[in-house]
């Protein structure tokens, strides 16, 4: 799903029955730097909370269309692609702490590519 910031309203409006028809969701989320804003945080948090009920995030790839926004040592790429796997399809869990993944490629070939900031996968 890549629908230029409409992903939040579409996902929040989708029923759980509809979402559960999918085993894998690959969604490009836009405006993630709005996490630094209260209303943006609430919208993004509501969307991810809904998805995380039945799906696990299995991969994140920052889009190199624009540089991460950094506030208080927290780096948030404004656009990232998330891959979700429905929880009933997970047979084992082993966190990946090596990014970028060997299969990751820059979204825009001529732009500087950056790795997923560690704050997204290290506690």
Chain-wise SSE layout:
Layout lengths: L6 H7 L2 H4 L4 E6 L8 H15 L2 E8 L6 E3 L2 E3 L3 E7 L37
Antiparallel strand pairs: 1-5, 2-5, 3-4
Helix pairs in contact: 1-3
Molecular structure report:
β3 (69-71) and β4 (74-76) form a beta hairpin. The two termini are 28 Å apart. By secondary structure, the chain is an alpha+beta fold. The mean pLDDT is 89. The protein has three helices and five strands; from the N terminus they run ααβαββββ.
Features:
single chain; 123 residues; alpha+beta; 3-stranded antiparallel β-sheet; two-stranded antiparallel sheet; 21% helix; 22% strand; globular
Number of helices: 3
Oligomer designation: single chain
Radius of gyration: 15 Å
Q: Give the N-terminus to C-terminus distance in angstroms.
A: 28 Å
Quote the beta fraction.
15-25%
Question: What would you say about this model in short?
Answer:
The chain is an alpha+beta fold.
């Amino acid at each position: 799903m890549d629908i230029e910031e409409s992903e939040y309203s579409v996902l929040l409006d989708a029923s759980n029955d509809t979402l559960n028809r999918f085993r894998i969701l690959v969604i490009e989320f836009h405006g993630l730097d709005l996490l630094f804003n209260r209303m943006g945080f609430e919208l993004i948090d509501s969307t991810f909370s809904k998805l995380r009920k039945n799906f696990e995030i299995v991969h994140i790839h920052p889009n190199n269309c624009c540089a991460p926004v950094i506030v208080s040592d927290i780096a948030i790429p404004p656009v990232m692609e998330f891959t979700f796997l429905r929880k009933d399809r997970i047979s084992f869990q082993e966190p990946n702490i090596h990014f970028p993944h060997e299969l990751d490629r820059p979204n825009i070939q001529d732009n500087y590519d950056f790795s997923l900031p560690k704050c997204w996968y290290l506690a």
